[in-house]
Recover the amino acids of this structure.
């Protein structure tokens, strides 16, 4: 972990972050979703508002899940502690996945039988749905009661995020036409963040221990 | 010989300029009024109701990957393309090969309006009032030799003016092809305008192919070379993914794209709650073109 002036800055951010209520994070993401929908209704999303809305929601969902993956390594490698926002980020990510799914099913495909056919016949959609299903138990256990009740099993269960995010990244790469750069960048970031989990924590010598 | 094909869509079907500029607002107002009723409504498809999309829709929602893969990228970036002067090289199995100046071509051709359905392989559609001339007239001008069986087309490639070609999304330059009888069909045109104005760069200025019964990507933009050949020419999307994009790429609701169904399409311009509509065989031009494919298995030759 860094020391000196960098540590002063990080401590400053940490104490500032402690004062931000989590509803600020929820609002920062839920208000844009409402605004996006409003724009879609009133013609602000271009000639194909359905696709624009669908893609924007899906991309934001993936971004939120990626932000969620950043939080643990940030604390571990820099001491920046944003752990208290992680539940909000995760639940917001799940919310965007659900909105993305609803827009796809009801505004884009518009028929439940075609939705079912797509899930079975189109692998990139099967993968997207699989990611959604993996997130269900995580969303359901994102509350203090479940954390207490499940104990150490909770941490294990929530490692499912890793698989869900990878599936989300593949879903994105697979749905575009041709070789496009943006989904590949998302995938690279996802794999980079996950590989940080494989880095072994060095044994801390006495000098690394903070003086209190 | 122009005017081989007569529009079933009439001049009066073209939205007047004042109205097409405002249509988005009108649509939005209508949607707000109807509320969610539109979700289950679905659009009734009647020939008389088919209305060209607004100029804004047609010129701001484009697939022209040389200028970026986003739908709005071409409108943002294509301004950099220099279209004057412009020459089209016509070569291969023709009597008069050479570089044809765009202005000279325009002088020799008869420009007419063609209001066509436009169906993208991505399962959205528009109706576009093109201005242009029949490709057959241009080919006749160059003199097609009897050995010619196919026509190959090539889009301009200028990395300095095309930010999208920095990425190998496709193997540039973009190339397309038609069988000679498809190319000579009176429905096949070279478009040089939209709504009576010069065609904007993002739509393929100064001249592009329009083959209304095929998926949009066959209608290659900003053409600099036309080659008459005796063998099937390579085509860009087929080279990129032969499993997904065939040489023919006729609009066919019964043959799915491997990743999505082609049975229905989303007509653009109807707003967030617009219904889907059934996709028509040959995009509704079956009476005119089905005979070109008699005896062919269209599921194999997709």
């Amino acid at each position: 972990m860094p020391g000196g002036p960098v540590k002063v800055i990080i401590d400053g951010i940490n104490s500032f972050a402690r004062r931000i209520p989590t509803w600020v994070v929820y609002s920062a993401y839920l208000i844009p979703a409402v605004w996006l929908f409003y724009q879609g209704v009133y013609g602000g999303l271009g000639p194909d508002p359905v696709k624009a809305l669908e893609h924007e929601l899906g991309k934001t969902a993936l971004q939120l899940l990626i932000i969620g993956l950043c939080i643990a390594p940030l604390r571990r490698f820099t001491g920046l502690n944003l752990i208290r926002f992680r539940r909000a980020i995760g639940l917001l990510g799940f919310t965007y996945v659900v909105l993305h799914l609803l827009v796809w099913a009801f505004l884009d495909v518009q028929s439940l039988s075609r939705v079912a056919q797509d899930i079975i016949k189109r692998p990139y959609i099967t993968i997207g749905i699989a990611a959604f299903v993996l997130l269900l138990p995580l969303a359901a256990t994102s509350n203090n009661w479940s954390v207490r009740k499940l104990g150490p099993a909770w941490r294990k269960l929530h490692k499912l995020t890793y698989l869900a995010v990878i599936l989300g990244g593949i879903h994105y790469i697979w749905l575009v036409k041709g070789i496009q750069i943006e989904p590949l960048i998302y995938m690279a970031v996802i794999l980079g963040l996950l590989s940080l989990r494989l880095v072994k924590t060095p044994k801390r010598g006495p000098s690394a221990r903070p003086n209190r | 010989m122009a005017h081989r094909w007569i529009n079933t869509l009439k001049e009066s079907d073209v939205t007047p300029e004042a109205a097409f500029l405002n249509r988005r607002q009108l649509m939005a107002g209508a949607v707000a009024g109807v509320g969610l009723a539109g979700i289950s409504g679905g659009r009734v498809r009647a020939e008389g109701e088919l209305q060209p999309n607004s100029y804004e829709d047609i010129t701001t929602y484009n697939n022209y990957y040389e200028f970026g893969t986003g739908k709005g990228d071409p409108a943002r970036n294509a301004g950099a393309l220099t279209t004057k002067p412009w020459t089209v090289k016509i070569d291969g199995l023709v009597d008069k090969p050479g570089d044809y100046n765009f202005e000279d071509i325009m002088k020799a051709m008869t420009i007419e309006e063609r209001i066509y359905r436009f169906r993208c392989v991505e399962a959205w559609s528009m109706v576009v009032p093109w201005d242009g001339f029949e490709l057959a007239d241009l080919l006749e001008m160059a003199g097609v030799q009897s050995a010619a069986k196919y026509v190959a087309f090539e889009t301009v490639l200028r990395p300095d003016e095309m930010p999208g070609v920095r990425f190998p999304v496709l193997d540039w330059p973009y190339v397309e092809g038609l069988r000679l009888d498809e190319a000579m069909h009176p429905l096949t045109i070279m478009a040089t305008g939209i709504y009576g104005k010069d065609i904007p760069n993002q739509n393929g200025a100064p001249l592009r192919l329009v083959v209304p019964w095929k998926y949009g990507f066959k209608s290659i933009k900003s053409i600099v070379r036309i080659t008459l050949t005796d063998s099937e020419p390579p085509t860009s999307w087929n080279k990129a993914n032969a499993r997904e994009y065939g040489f023919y790429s006729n609009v066919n609701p019964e043959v799915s794209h491997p990743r999505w169904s082609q049975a229905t399409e989303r007509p653009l311009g109807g707003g967030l709650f617009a219904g889907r509509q059934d996709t028509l065989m040959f995009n509704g031009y079956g009476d005119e073109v089905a005979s070109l494919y008699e005896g062919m298995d269209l599921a194999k030759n997709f």
